[in-house]
Structure formats: C-alpha cells, structure tokens
Amino acid sequence: MDATLRELQQHITEAMHAGTPLLIRAGGSKDFYGNAGAGELLDPRAHAGIVAYEPTELVVTARAGTPLAELEAVLAASGQMLAFEPPQFGATATVGGCVAAGLSGPRRAAAGALRDFVLGATLLSGRAEVLAFGGTVMKNVAGYDVSRLLAGSLGVLGVILEVSLKVVPKPTQEASVRFALDETAALRRLNEWGAQPLPISATAWQGTGTPGAGILHLRLSGAPKAIEAACARLGGERLDDRSAAALWRGLREHTDPYFATDQPLWRLGLPSTAAPVNLGGAQLIEWGGAQRWLRTEAPAREIRARAQALGGHATLFRGGEREDGAFTPLTAPVAAIHRRLKAAFDPAGILNPGRLYPDL
Amino acid sequence: MNAPNAPAATIDRDRQRALARALRTVLPGRGLLYREEDTRPYECDALTLHRRLPMLVALPETAEQLRRVLRICHERGVPVVPRGAGTGLSGGCTPLPDGVLLSTAKLNRVLRVDPLARTATVEPGVRNLAISEAAAPHGLHYAPDPSSQIACTIAGNVAENAGGVHCLKYGLTVHNVLRVRGLTMDGEAVEFGSEALDSPGLDLLALVIGSEGMLAVITEVTVKLLPTPQFARCAMASFGDVVTAGHAVAAIIGAGLIPAGLEMMDQSATRMVEPFVHAGYDLDAAAILLVEADGTPEEVAEQIAQVTAVLRRAGATRVAVSASEAERLRFWAGRKAAFPSAGRVSPAYYCMDGTIPRKRLGEMLLAIQEMEHTYGLRCPNVFHAGDGNLHPLILFDDNDPEQVARAEAFGVEILELSVALGGTITGEHGVGLEKITQMCAQFTPQELDCLRAVKRAFDPSGLLNPDKVIPSLHRCAEYGRMKVVGGKLPFPELERF
User: Fold this and answer.
1) Residue B76 burial (CB count, 10 A)
2) Which of A85, B126, B371, B465 is deepest in the core (most CB within 10 A)?
3) Within 10 A of A79 (CB to CB), how many other CB atoms are there?
4) Cβ–Cβ below 8 Å for B194 and A344
5) With b meaning 16 or more CB within 10 Å and e meaning fewer, what string describes A56-66?
6) Tens of pLDDT along B118-127?
7) Do A222 and B196 touch (CB under 8 A)?
8) How high is the pLDDT of residue B3?
9) Quick check: ipTM above 0.95?
10) Containing domain of residue B420, as a range?
11) Distance from CA of B8 to the nearest CA of A (A)
12) CA distance A326 to chain B (A)
C-alpha cells in the first residue's frame, strides 16, 4: 500500500475514534454544489495518477486525485472521451470529485449519465477499510453494484480512491443547427425527434426574452453520412464549427451567459415530455426536455411542488438560501434506507456529514 | 455448484398449514400452492443442479395481494424467495423449504406505452419480448435482449441486470431502466429512480438492479424505449486460431467502432450447431466472429466497410457479409441455437458466465482447451466477445455423479481463471447459489461484510431471498481461497481462519 493511501487511512481512523467530522475536498471546483460541508479538511489529491488505460479495452482506471483535465487529454490523444461530458467547473477538478458529484453534461440524454459509465471503484470507508467493487470489465453482476452507488454520493459513504470508467470513441464528425421555436413547440419536436433514428447528441433551448419565444440548438454526432442525411432532413440554420464548439462548451461548463447571474439557479430533472414549468424566470432546457434550468427567486417550496407535480425533482444548484436543503427531500422509507446505508459505510458519521442531506 | 447455505432440510407440515391458512385470506384458488405436485415445478430455475421444494408457492395477481403476502411473512418471520419466469441460470430463485416462493409472473400487464416520452411502464411479470412487441407499432423497442427473452420477465431482468447480444452498443438493464417501484420485505412501498433521467439522493436504482431479489420485491418497472434500427447487416469472419480471433475483437474496438453485436464462436461450437441450423458456418475455422452493424442504410454501409477492412487486416481467412435479411438471420441462427444444440448433443450442459478483459480472450480459450483434457469433458465456447463475456458450455451426463463432479470442478476452474485474468465470475447470469463460493475469491471479508450491510439496509429482517449471493465467512474459510489484494498470484492458498 502506498504512503498517500496509508496517510488517508490513518486520518480516517483517527477521525473515526475521535468522532471528528471530515470535509472531503479535492480541487474545490464544486464547493458550491449540495449543502455546505464542515469539518476537518481531508484532501485526497496526493492519491493521483492514471493506473491503467488501454484504448482497445474501452476502460480507463484513475486515482481520485487525477486532474479531470489530464484524464480527458489522455483519452483525447487516443481518439476517445468520457461520453457523459462531465462539467469541470474549473481547472482544479479531479476524477474523484467528478464521480462524487455525479454530474453529466450536454451528451447525457443521448449517451447516458456518469453512473452509466462507472465500471468499478475502490473506496475508503468510514471504518478506514479499503473496499473494491465492480472492476474493469463491461459486465459484472457479482455482488451489489456499490461502485455505481458512489456516483453522486457527495462523499457521504466513503472517500473515492480509484475508479474505472468506460470510455467511448470520439464521434468522427459533429454538426450543430439552430431553429427559432417557442418552448412548447421545441419540447414537442425534441420528443418526436427522440423517437427517430437521428444522431442527436445534445440539445439546448433558451428563451429569447419574449415570453415563450426561443432558440433551439441541436448537436449531431456520428458517421459523416449519417450527419449529412440528418441535416438535410431536419433543416434549420447550420452553425460554424467554432461557434458550435463554444456554445456546447459554455453549456457544459456554465460559462454561457445564461449562467452569469446572481439569482438562485435551479436544476429541475423532469420527464422529457413534462409541460412547461411556467414559474417565471429565465429558462434553459437541455437533455431533450429532461433537464430544465431556472433562474428565479421563487420560494423553494413552490419550485419543488411544481417539479413534483410534473413527475420530477428540483435541486438548488447554485446560489440562493439553503435552509430547505439543496436537494428534494426523500420519502420516509427511502430516507430510512439512506440512513442505514450511511451507518453501514460510515458508522461514526464522520464523512461529509450533512453535505447530501442533514441526517446523512 | 456447492451445497447451499444450509437451509432447513425438510418442510415442517404444521408450519406449512398455519401459514397457508393465513395466506388463504389473501390468495384465493390457484393463487396459493402447497401440494407437492403443484409446488414441484418451482423447485429450481434453469440451473437444474439445485432443487429444493418450497413450503408454499404464492402467486399474487395484484400489487396489493403481493404487499399483504409480504406483511404476513414478515410478521411471522417467514423467508420469501421472489421468482419471475424461472429462466435464471444461477439458482437465484431456488426456494427454501421453510419459506414462500413468491412468483410475480401473474402480474403481467403492460400498463402504459408512451411513444412520445419513449417509455413503457409494465408490471413485473411482463416478458422481455412482450415489451418490444407492445412498442413495435411506434417504431420503438426495449434494447436489452437476453437469449431467454421470449420467456424471461422484466423483474427477473432487473434482478439479474440482464444483458444480451446488443449490450455493447445499447447497454445492460441498468442503462435502460428509468424507475423501479417495489416493496421492501416489510411491505413498505418504495420507488427507485423516476421518469426523469435522475432522482434525488443516492442512486439506489443502481443497487437494486442486479441485486438478485434480495433488496426489494418489484411491483412495476418503467423502461426506456429506443428507436428500432431501420436496417442491419452482419459480417462473418473466419480465423485460423483463437488467439488471432481474440485480437481481431480488440482491433475492431481499437478502430473506434462500436458494432451492434460482436460475438465469437469456437470451432467446437460451430460444429455443434451447424447440423441443427445450417447457418453456413466455416467449419474449418478455429473460431468465427459475427459483427453486426445497424442504423440507417448509409451508416450500415459505412460501418460494414470499416469492419471488413479491420477484420482482413487482423488476419481473417474469410469474411462474408449478409446480402439479405434472411441471410443475416441465418448467421445469427447458429449463435442463438448454441444452448439448445448443447442440450441436444449432450444429456446436460453447464453454462458458465465469466467476464474478462477482451485482450485475454485468446488466453482464456487456450486454457479452456487444456481443461477439456484435464477433466475429460467437451466445452464448446460462445462469447459476447465485444463485452468479454464468456459462455463456455461444459457438456456432461447428469445421470453420472462422477461426471457431474468433474463438470462442477471444470466450472470452478473457469470462474477462478476469470478472476485471475482481471475479470469477474459472472457477467450477466448472477451469483445466485451457483457461484456463491467463488464470491470468496472475488471479494475480501470486509467487502463481503459491506455487501451484507447493504442487504440489511434494505431488509433489516434478512428474510428476503436470504441465502443467496453473499457467502458466510465460514463458507469462505472452508473453501480455503480468498481474494488477494493486488492479485499477484492466480490461485493463492491462504491459511484458514
């Protein structure tokens, strides 16, 4: 066992005995996300490096402290990528933080979420035990899928030490097109196109300021012939490659002007066919209608009630007051399962307490 | 392949009568079975090596009946084993003589197909293929297609995280299920996932999928539907040796291609199936690869040209491309007939399910050829090569106890080699009872403790499918083999404890 791992293990052992809460934090690029953390800092960044990468296996294994940018550069050099396009939210983002936050970018609706690409993980539990689940193969049903459980767990179950992620080839070609469409028409079209064999890899609708009116962008990815056929069929106005790349990067990294705001930013996860949210405030719709961003001062209760009525949930993503919590509360039986899982992985309750929910 | 986790040996008739009286209030008529001639069909799943009679068989027709059955069993401390169609290959729904076998097969209605949202919501007993049939009028289908798809149910697919021949491109059950509604052992309604693409809290949906009926009983599943590809063609390539064929698989992936299907059969398998299906396989080839492209006609033409070029460069001695839909289906007919053919050439066969890194395929095949000599049994091989998922079919005579023992030992050696090559004991068939001992080789005692704690988090009473998947530490000690962290030695003999 290497020295950095031994140090992390010792830190947790001491905290466990003393009952000291630990704040697991690497690059801090996602400090804003979730509920505020508190406790003694535990920085896993020394545990870094790509452990194994063989492009023909479509798998990369990296330690948690590996900079996400470094990982993506290594994949790109072999013509591969992380299909879920994780947002980095800053140059300091790490692989461990990426998995713990569990966020996916513009390609999510087409390619799958971060959790869909987690093949295996090693974690350091709140008992200071090193536990490995899953592996590096595509299919694995030996035991429960604990490695996927870590995606989006915000560190409450353990310190992620190492993850194996499925990677995919970069598409050979991409093209982006735009349409002037109001919200209802855009949602309708997005769902209709979703049922057709079109190589749509990302979508974004933004209001133009006039009520209802907006612009829908589509990105198409795949084989050149398929892209050309789809462009001919869909119509719309074609973007040049440079502005297309800037658009999708801005949406992925939240550097798009839409996100430059002091207003609270809400993320609503809804069925793609859900009706317009109609809560006022500027809106940005991604993932074919399944992810709707809302800049609004409306009360949390009202937003959550509306999201629930539409079959989804609402997260206070950035800014705003968090007294109602960043995440939608769980039903009682599911909350009870959460508490028992927490107690199993972290009986002393020292790992990122409160970061996901107050009692975890 | 080993004695189960020591359940009670016989059925206690007094307990059976008392429980039957209680369950009768919930389950009228044929909803409750207790006579031996009625319960006998439930004694095993498709892994017929493990057979046990359940104390009772419950066949609820509604979710409310199901809930009340669970409440009664929970109150009385009676273990419950859920079962779908019983097509599983690992003994995951092997009954308990002191427990209730709870079949969800009668809850078999397709509740909703939403063509706009591209989802289907179904009861647990709906068959896998029935979902695609219900979606077909809308040009949609449910992608995971395990070979048992005519019979297997969606709840069983969720329990096992079922795959199929198309999962390299379209994913496993875990990638295609949006929401699972179910009941915990104490009858509480729970919902994992949502009709959105995510839900708040920990990803319990990921835990429940593949949990082999040990965490919750499924009452409803919402799946994602995908557009049905307009067109498909299949390339069939012959290879002079298995190692070259294995490298060709890596070459296809390395070229940035993700075919819709990428399957391998060795010579023993092609020669076994050809007399039955006349697929036109090259019987002189040491191995053949089937590589399917799907999509629009343009995409398919482009991908088939690329695949053919890669296969030739990788040393294929012959490449044929299907010229018609009939020919494409004929290429696949042999692959799909592998299991039934094994059943026709041999009194019994034992299907293994290890998964290994693709680059080790050739090595594994050579090792299995050696084992055929060691154990004196034939073992044709079919693979989901694109996923590195092996299905060696060990042929034996189940009326000969000595051959049964050899077949089991052969299987154990394949599983252990899968772990040693950096893979897993099971890719898609599950651990069940069959591979429970080999879990000791794949996980440390701490990891097994953690799995046990996950089970308790969902089922504190420990009554739901209690003796599957997770071996006792005692069993691991008896087995005498433990996972070695770092994996330096393939088969370490560790001290007992």
Assistant:
1) 14
2) B465
3) 13
4) no
5) bbbbbbbbbbb
6) 999 999 999 9
7) no
8) 42
9) yes
10) 346-479
11) 24
12) 10
